[in-house]
Amino acid sequence: MLYILTGVAKSGKSLVAKELVKRYHLPLTQTDHIMMMLYRGNPNLNIHIDASDSTVAFELEPYLRGLFQTIIENKKDHLVEGVHLLTSYAHELMTNYPTKVRILYLGYANQDPIIKGQELKNHAHLMENPWYMSYPEKEFHQLMVYMVKESQRIKKECADLHIPYVDIHDIFQQKDDIIKLLMGS
What we know:
Helix content is 56%, strand content 12%. It is of the alpha/beta class. Helix 1 (13-24) packs across helix 7 (171-183).
C-alpha cells in the first residue's frame, strides 16, 4: 500500500509520519527531499523551491508519478509525506488505484492566523525545520493568513473530490486518530 500524508505546511505531517515509521516500520520518502535533490542535482530542471507549494507540486508531479508507480508495482508498504501533491493528482491516484493508495490531507482551515502563528512559534523547538522563525512579524502574519487560506482551498477541493481531509486543532491530541484514518484501521 502507498500511504500519502499531505496537506498544508506546518500542519503536523512530519510528526505523524515519524510516528507511522515508528509504529509500522514503514519506509518514508519526503517530498521536500525529492524537491531539493532535483533542485541541487540538476539546476536545468528549473524547480522553483521558493514558489508556492502548489507550483512546486506541479513541477514535481512527473517525478512523483514515477516514484508512486514504482512503489505500487513493488507491492510493498511505503509512506510518502509532504506538501507537494495537488488534489487533482491525488484524486487520479485514488481513482486509478483504489486498493493500492491511501491519501490523507491535513490543514487548519478553521484556525485563526494569529493563534496558529503563536502555536508555531511556541512549538518551533520541536520542529525539524522552523524556517518561518526568521520572518519579520508583519511577513510572518501574512504567511499565517496565506496558509489558513491555502488550508481552506485544499479543504474545499478535498470535499469536492471526496479526498479525506482532517482539520488540525491539536496535532498531539489528533495524532492517533489521523494514523487510524490513514492506515484504514
